[in-house]
Amino acid sequence: MDMERICPQCGASSRDTPFLASFCRNCFIQRNRIFSLPEISLLQCPKCERIRLKGEWVASDFLHAHIREKIQSKYALTHCRIQFHQPDKKHVEARIDMEFNVDGQAVAEKYSLAMPLEKKMCPDCSLRSGGYHEAVIQIRGPKEKTQKISAQLVRLIEKKTFVTKVVQQKEGVDIQVGKKRPGLEALTQLRLDATYTRKLIGEREGKRLYRTTACVRL
Ligand SMILES: [Zn+2]
Ligand SMILES: [Zn+2]
Fold this sequence. Notes:
Elements (H helix, E strand, L loop, with lengths): L18 E2 L2 E2 H7 L10 E3 L6 E3 L2 E3 L3 H9 L5 E13 L2 E12 L2 E15 L3 H7 L5 E6 L2 H15 L5 E6 L3 E6 L2 H10 L5 E10 L2 E11 L1
Parallel strand pairs: 3-8, 9-13
Antiparallel strand pairs: 1-2, 4-5, 6-7, 7-8, 9-11, 10-11, 12-13
Bound molecules: zinc ion (2 copies).
């Protein structure tokens, strides 16, 4: 037989209402902070819409995981649903539905987090808008084939760096690539052989700057 317990705060009986520790559930939740969440402010690039998290520019999809990571609790977070709204241009609101396991019972919590939003162009977009590119990949061959391969390359390259421009030439396609290395790695990934040339394009802070051209013949 269950021993009856009486909530010291409101007098409710454990026969009528569930208890958590020595309080009725309602009073327990009122008295104990189940979780805490620090303030989060957002920096977003107006061009590519990526956001800056932990010093890196990432797709805005990562915000969900980031918020979840910031939820502090001594209880296990068993469920978390976040919906985003934008009440005005300077804020993003996260409506968070959470469920915690508190002494074996599911306790639901709702929270609305207003995050100040600031817009700033990311370094990649600043470079791209200035026409910067460290490499050019020239795809040469029959039109249909060059179009198909260059589309595949652009998709791969854009996972790691920016594509400044794709130029259709009479002989094929030129892809201007922001950072050289990911551009050339994409060629290896697609097993494309290329011939390389390098051209001096200037100097910055006493260092010579080169642009690499990789020519692929299909
Ligand atoms: Zn109570
Ligand atoms: Zn950007």
